[in-house]
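> example.struct
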């Protein structure tokens, strides 16, 4: 703490940016689904894509610095989840 100000460390700053990027993707998705004009929807799609890429960049920085641990799932778990989503997709078609 300096002069009564709170200072964020690198990990906290990256976590804050990650949370912000995730929130922005959700807000752009809401705007996209509520938008009626083609131009607006195209703009929202572009913003979602750019923001999702930014979110991934921050996430990758966090993993590279060891701030975010990612564990690989066993192949059987991945297969089970894939089957679940395939069934749901089939029911929606």
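> example.seq
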């Amino acid at each position: 703490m300096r002069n009564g100000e709170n200072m964020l460390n690198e990990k906290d700053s990256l976590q804050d940016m990650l949370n912000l990027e995730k929130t922005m993707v959700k807000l752009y998705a809401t705007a996209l689904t509520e938008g009626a004009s083609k131009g607006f929807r195209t703009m929202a799609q572009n913003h979602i894509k750019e923001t999702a890429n930014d979110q991934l960049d921050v996430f990758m920085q966090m993993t590279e610095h060891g701030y975010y641990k990612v564990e690989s799932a066993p192949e059987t778990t991945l297969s089970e989840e894939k089957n679940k989503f395939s069934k749901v997709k089939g029911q929606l078609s």
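> remarks
Residues 10-92 form one domain.
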